[in-house]
Write a structure and sequence with these properties.
two-stranded antiparallel sheet; 2 domains; single chain
């Protein structure tokens, strides 16, 4: 997507970008950006004021753009929002259910699933630990993410194999 298309979309939909969704870079910020990123060299002598989007602004931009990536982003936002709304409803129902009863256990399980689904869509990981518990009408949530990079792991395994061979040869 070209910058021109993004600027046109923003210009055509000003009501979708209230305060806190988009801002203009100051002259010093623009100079710093151009200095640090070669791909902005074409902006070096441009008199145009550069726009920057906040996270909310990027989400809104995704809803008005037509590219496949924008469509996928919009779908992901809608899915996450729907799960958050369901989670809010489930959390409200938990204290109302009979303590340690089957309905409460089902609600607790569902809330844990929803939290996991929401986090799964945003955090890359190899393994995960999720626990959800009810304690005097207080919901506690713990989510741990252990990241392992496949390339690093493969290199470490290779290195271990080499060391293992050397040890075997020396014995």
């Amino acid at each position: 997507m070209q910058t021109k298309e993004i600027n046109q979309a923003v210009k055509n939909n000003p009501e979708k970008f209230p305060d806190g969704y988009i801002f203009l870079l100051e002259k010093e910020e623009k100079e710093e950006l151009v200095k640090n990123f070669d791909r902005f060299n074409s902006q070096k002598h441009s008199s145009a004021t550069l726009k920057a989007f906040t996270e909310k602004g990027l989400y809104m931009l995704a809803t008005i753009l037509k590219s496949p990536q924008a469509v996928q982003t919009t779908i992901a936002i809608v899915e996450a929002y729907a799960k958050l709304r369901e989670l809010a409803r489930v959390v409200v129902e938990i204290p109302q259910a009979e303590e340690d009863g089957p309905q409460q256990k089902t609600l607790l399980k569902r809330s844990g699933q929803l939290v996991s689904e929401i986090l799964d869509s945003t955090l890359p990981k190899q393994s995960e630990e999720t626990s959800f518990e009810l304690n005097l009408a207080m919901v506690k949530f713990k989510h741990s993410v252990k990241r392992e990079h496949d390339d690093e792991m493969a290199a470490l395994k290779k290195e271990l194999e080499v060391l293992k061979k050397k040890m075997e040869e020396s014995i």
